[in-house]
Amino acid sequence: MPRLFDATTVYRSMGFFVGGARLPFVASIRYLAGPAPDSTLTLFSLSLTNQALSFQRRGNEFVADYRVEATFRTDSTSPPVRQISRDERVRVRSFQETLRSDESIIFQQFVTVPPGVYHVQVVVRDRNGPSFSRADGADTVPRFAGQGTTRPIPIYTGQGRKEASALPELLANPRSTLPYGADTVYFYLEAYGPRALAPLVARAVDLSDRELWRDTITLAGTPPFAAGTIAVTPSSLPVGQAAFEATPLGGGDTIRAPFLVSFSNQWVITNFDEMINLLRYFERQDWVDSLRRSPADNRAELWRQFWRATDPVTITPENEALDDYFRRVQQANLRFQSEGEAGWLTDRGEVFITLGEPDEVLDMSSGMDRSGVRAIRWSYTDHRLALYFQDPTGFGQFRLTPSSRAEYQRVLARVRRSR
Which of 249, 273, 324, 381 yields a CA-CA distance of 20 to 30 A from 55? Predict the structure, then answer.
């Protein structure tokens, strides 16, 4: 349960630079051969959401400004060997777009860095507000020297390049994240040396090294340089962390890169069954039941249908109904922790998730109600509903009384019919 709302832990485990809660970001660094053996071409890319920045209205637009700084040092106190410092501006047409909580901003820059081990520091600042965030870590810049194969680079689109002296035309996927049931995920590779055109066995494997997808590929070009983009079809990939691997057909070193198949940029859910379990209180149980009964090979398409059918604002990339639902799950899990039970699975958690915040709370837990047990009363004015939670054990495990459970179910059924 904690992983669901702590994407930073997952992205850090994948080797990325992750900013804190004040201005969350995910950054990655990938490497290609540079124009000389002592110079490696470095692709720095960073992912932000519109929601993380402060927008100001200017005429018919909303504008946000941010600054990205990335430094490569031989240690944490030495002068920078290389540094990226850029100011960027985001323009959107509507206020609704400023609230986007999906990956809506991608920053990237190529820079040449001498091979070696570096202390890397990434800082992102909101130039219209006080928020900033920083991430530090060690990274090794490889030396290609005209030989070998690059680690796969997750991309959204691009043509790459035809020679090492040029800059690739790529749009990086900084989070290496693929929405479940959505578009194909692409990886860009380059190979150098006399065997640059040797066939490669490409695989996608899960964390248990179980093979999910396989193909044999050959990069295009003229030795000593070859490059290519490999497409992995998402319908063959389950939800969760995985890795893309490439190995020379005749044997040799395997190069790999992690990626994540997720239901959302905001929720880190490791498998389909976990998602179904978390949706137990979602109002569209007809769709949840369909997902539960769906065979594995039909789940991706059915999830796309579920997303469209439950999305109240189809012009945005998010599903606001699901986002609101999971925010309530998160809050319930924190607020109603009980002995031996997750907060969202308690009776109070269930009522909070489905009906929202009560209008009035009367806490009688320090004393006794008329039945002689500790109790809490929640009132919902619009629903003309008063619910009693009792703690007969004295260990903080508040349960709906039988009559309150019946009233709650009656009101909930009425609310769902009216929507």
Answer: 324
